[in-house]
Design goal:
The protein is an alpha+beta fold and about 550 residues long. The protein is about 50% helix and about 10% strand. The strands form three sheets. It has a five-stranded antiparallel beta sheet, sandwiched between helices. A five-stranded antiparallel beta sheet has the order 6-7-9-10-8, with helices on both faces.
Length: about 550
């Protein structure tokens, strides 16, 4: 613009023969000063407008200086936000903005900066004023255009690179993401003997690609959204179109869109906002770290929720029977899978009921204990200063303390603390006469049984205490009443409108072959009707 105006002034001076050379130089200097002053005024006006208008409505400026000034204020001059300014061979200023640590610098230097400079070398200066032409000068895989500063800020925070060219009111958003991430390894909480060993990690795009490798279907859909006013966490809803229950999918969308909070740091945050019964001991939203488990659940019509920054993926609806099933049940022979499921049910009952039953029988129903065993128990508890209920409560609290310390300490130290602590505390308590040996045995059996159903570990701890209190207060009558209340509560639960105890209540004859019994895969032709009512056939 300056050169054009100067050339225009020189042409005017050539057609004015009466004007002296000094006069022309003075006028030319005056015009140049006016141009400089007008540019300063324009920058000041744009900065004033930027202060008055919100960021969401702010448009990209036409000058690199204004864009840089605005973004420096928007990012509070943070040290990790990098501004790289350079000039092309034709004299056009270019500004690159990115966050250090979120981009691949090799990719940025090779496919963006170097490519832009070399390809623009042979282009006229006026062609660099067209944003669509500028996209062709960049070798990156994904280049998007935007005219708003809010989109620029959001994409830069997500790891993209923003490019501004002097004289263009459009910003280019270039995908050059590249940050450190954990390798895909087997999750510690869902170890298997047979089956895939890969697990989700903290990167949402890696997780979605792992699922895509399991389900190579064009009907697999991912819907992206951002949650958290401050964190703006990337979240994705995944489902298989044609199989998913549309009512459940619509309910999941509605609940996610209603989330209004500052931060979403893990799927546990999302779970607490979307679950049906937030005060229930039983979880109505499931989570997994394994792609094969997630794929199997989605093929039955469930919806998955991915969250960036965590390896745990949520699935809804969630049924109680899922807690007693594992992925290995479908990789082994049917009768072996049935035996393992029966063992898990037995372990669940032992872990929850045995402490309360022991106290109830010893306190109220001694006639139900065999005589020889009753005599030995009487001899062991004759010197114990506490009643049976208090004795059991003390040992359960000690056991939970040891278990929690073993989890929180480093793995090498935690396992040693758990084993040695259990031996020392148990033997010392018996020798000191605080508890009887039979109570220590009951707690040991209860603890081992609880490890068989890790998915229900939180509920097992609460119910164990509740049944202990019921057995201490009312004996077997309290235990029976407790079972009745727990069953009523479970039957009343819903997960996104789906009954929690399905396919048992309400009954679904079509999928009872995968409830406790596990029929051969070729005989399992139906999807759960409670989850998917339209496409019931697995081959449909």
């Amino acid at each position: 613009m300056k050169e054009r105006k100067c050339l225009h002034i020189n042409k005017i001076s050539t057609v004015m023969p009466k004007a002296s050379h000094s006069t022309v130089k003075k006028k030319l200097y005056t015009f140049r000063q006016l141009i400089i002053e007008s540019e300063k005024v324009a920058d000041e006006i744009s900065q004033i407008v930027a202060k008055l208008r919100p960021v969401d409505a702010m448009a990209v400026f036409t000058t690199v200086t204004s864009n840089k000034s605005f973004l420096e204020k928007a990012f509070k001059k943070s040290g990790d936000v990098t501004f790289n300014e350079f000039t092309t061979f034709s004299g056009v200023k270019v500004l690159i903005v990115y966050i250090d640590g979120l981009v691949n610098k090799d990719l940025l230097g090779r496919d963006v900066i170097s490519s832009f400079i070399m390809k623009s070398k042979e282009q006229p200066a006026n062609t660099l004023l067209d944003s669509k032409f500028l996209k062709n000068l960049i070798s990156a895989a994904s280049v998007q255009e935007t005219k708003t500063m809010s989109a620029v800020i959001d994409d830069v925070l997500n790891g993209d690179t923003a490019m501004f060219v002097d004289g263009v009111d459009t910003a280019l958003l270039i995908d050059c993401k590249g940050w450190e991430k954990r390798a895909v390894i087997e999750p510690d909480t869902e170890t298997v003997i047979r089956g895939p060993r890969e697990g989700f990690i903290e990167n949402i795009r890696t997780n979605t690609s792992l699922l895509r490798r399991k389900i190579k279907n064009r009907n697999l859909v991912f819907e992206n959204m951002s949650l958290g006013q401050q964190t703006k966490t990337n979240v994705a809803i995944a489902y298989i179109d044609g199989i998913v229950n549309q009512a459940v999918l619509g309910e999941v969308r509605r609940r996610l869109n209603k989330i209004d909070t500052d931060s979403i740091l893990e799927t546990g945050y999302i779970e607490q906002f979307i679950e049906d019964s937030p005060f229930s001991v039983l979880a109505t939203v499931a989570n997994t770290q394994k792609p094969d488990i997630l794929a199997a659940k989605m093929l039955e019509g469930r919806v998955a929720i991915f969250c960036d920054g965590t390896p745990h993926v949520l699935t809804v609806p969630h049924l109680f029977i899922e807690e007693l099933q594992t992925s290995e049940d479908y990789y082994m022979r049917p009768f072996i899978a049935f035996a393992w499921r029966m063992l898990r049910i037995l372990a669940l009952l032992i872990s929850v009921l045995v402490p309360g039953l022991y106290v109830a029988l010893q306190t109220y129903h001694q006639e139900m204990i065999p005589t020889i065993l009753l005599l030995r128990m009487a001899g062991s508890i004759s010197d114990i200063p506490f009643p049976a209920g208090a004795e059991m409560l003390i040992m359960i609290v000690f056991y939970e303390l040891l278990r929690e310390s073993g989890i929180r300490l480093p793995r090498a130290v935690g396992s040693a603390i758990s084993i040695v602590g259990a031996l020392i505390v148990g033997e010392s308590a018996v020798n000191a006469g605080l508890v009887s040996g039979s109570v220590v045995i009951v707690i040991a059996i209860t603890g081992v049984a609880g490890f068989i159903v890790p998915a229900l570990s939180e509920a097992v701890i609460i119910y164990r205490f509740l049944f202990l209190i019921a057995g201490t207060a009312m004996g077997l009558y309290g235990i029976v009443c407790g079972i009745f209340i727990v069953v009523l509560h479970a039957v009343s639960l819903r997960s996104c409108g789906v009954p929690y105890t399905s396919p048992l209540a309400p009954s679904d004859q079509g999928v009872l072959n995968d409830f406790i019994l596990r029929f051969p895969l070729w005989a399992m032709k139906k999807r759960p009707e409670a989850i998917e009512k339209n496409n019931k056939e697995r081959r449909g």
